[in-house]
Design goal:
four-stranded antiparallel beta sheet, 3 domains, 18 helices, about 500 residues
Length: about 500
Amino acid sequence: MLLFSVFVLSLCGITYELVLGSLATYLLGNPVLQYSITIGVFLSSMGLGSFLSKYITGNLAAAFVRIEIALGLVGGLSVMVLSALFSFSSSYYLLQVFFLVVIGAMVGLEIPLLTRMLKSSGSLKDVLAGVLSLDYLGGLAGSLLFPLLLFPYAGRLLTSILIGIANVLVALLVMARVQYEGKSRADVAVAVVAVLALGMIAFRSEQIGTIFQKRLYYDDIVYTRRSRYQEIVLTRNEDDFRLYLSGSLQFSTVDEYRYHEMLVYPPLLLCRGEPGEVLVMGGGDGLAVRDILKSDRVRSVTLVELDRAMISLATGNPSMVRINRGSLSDGRVRVVVEDAYSYLVRERKRFDVIVADFPDPHDETTAKLYTTEFFGLVKRSLKPGGIFVTQSTSPLFASSAFWCINATMKQVFAAVVPYHAYVPTFGDWGFNIASSGPIDPGAMREPPGGCRFFSRDAFTAAMHFTEDIAEREVKINTFNRPVLYTYYLKGWRISVD
C-alpha cells in the first residue's frame, strides 16, 4: 500500500508542477521563463520539505496522512485561487511562488516519511530501490498524462482538483489499510469532507472556469475550446468579433482586413510569374485564405495549420464562416493539419507564393518559425521567381525583433523588403517579403477588386520607415541560438511599462 502510494504521489507532484507552470505561462507569457521559475522554486521547496522531515518524529503515519490531506486541499485549490486573484492582484508572482513553496515543501516531505515508514519492511537498500524506482515511474506517468490527457480534456482547473482528490484518497487508503497507532476519526472526517468539497468544485469546474475566463476578456464569449495546443476564445461586442489564442489577440473584425490585405497582396502582385499555387502556413482562421481567393490568378491554396481545433472553428462556427466567407470550404483549398516545419521538411512540392501567418515569436517554440533554418526550407519550397512573406510583429513596439526577422531573412534570400502598416487594434505592424531573385515594387500589378485598404500607393508608403523605427543592428535568429524571442519580450515589456 505504501509503495503504491509512492507512485501515485510522485504522479501528483509532477502534475502540480506542470499545471502551475502552464497557468503562469497562460497568464504571463514567456514559457521558458515561467517553467524555469516554476521548476526551480518547486524543486528547491521539495528540498526544503525533505530537510524539514527530520523534525517529524513519533507517529509518522498520522503525520503523513495529515500532510496528504493538506496537500490535497492546497494543491487542488491552487489553480482556482490563483486564477481568481490574477485580475485583482499586482503581485501574482508572489502568489505563484507562495503556492510553489507550500506545495513543493509538502511534496518533499512525502518520500522521506514513506521511506522511514517502510524501513521495517526490509533492508535499507531494498526499501530505497523500491521507493525511488516507483517515484521516478510516477514522475514519468505524470509528465505524460498531463500533456496527453489531463490538459487537453480536463484543463488546468479540473486537473488540479482531480490531483488534489488523489492526494486525499491516498490519505484515506492509508488510514483504511495501514495499521498504526493513534488513528483519528477526526482525520477520517476531515479527509471525507475534503474529498466531497473538492468533488463538488470539480463538478462545477466548467462553470467556475467560465467565470474566470470572462474576467480576462472585456466582451461576451461566444465560443471557447481548449485544444491540445492552446485555448481558443472568440468574443463579440456588437459587430466586433475578436479571436484570442491562449490569451493573445489574433484579430478584430473592426480592422483585420488591413492586416490581411497587407499580408497577402504584396506577394501575390509582385510574384514574377502567375501566383497559381499558394501555400499558407498558420492562418487557420481562414482570413488570409479568404483574401487570397479574391485573385482570379490563384488556382490552388494549401493551408498548413497545426491545430485541428482551429480548422473546426473556421469551418463549423457560423460566425467564423461568415467572417472568412467559407474560404476553407472552397474547392481550390486543401487543408493539411500538420506542423509547418515538419511539412516543409517532408513536402517536395514548390509554390509560387508562400505566406506565413504565424503567431508572434514570444517563445522558443514560435521563434523557430523565424530562423535561418526555417527560412531555408521556405526558400527550397519556392518556385523560381516565387515570393515569400511573413508577419514580423511591430517595428514600433518590438523594433529589435522586427529587424531581427529582417536580418535573418537576408541570410537566406537575395532580396528582402520590409514594410509596415497601421492596424488600430495592433498598432504599427510589420511584414517582410523575400525572394531569391530581385523584387521590383514598381512592377506591382493592380490589386483585385474589393480591397478596402491595400493599394499600390499604400504599399509604396508602407516601405518607408521613420527614424524612430529605422533599421538597427541585431543578431541573427537560428535554431541553436534563438535570440528573437528575447528581443520580442524585451520590446513588448518596455512598451507596456
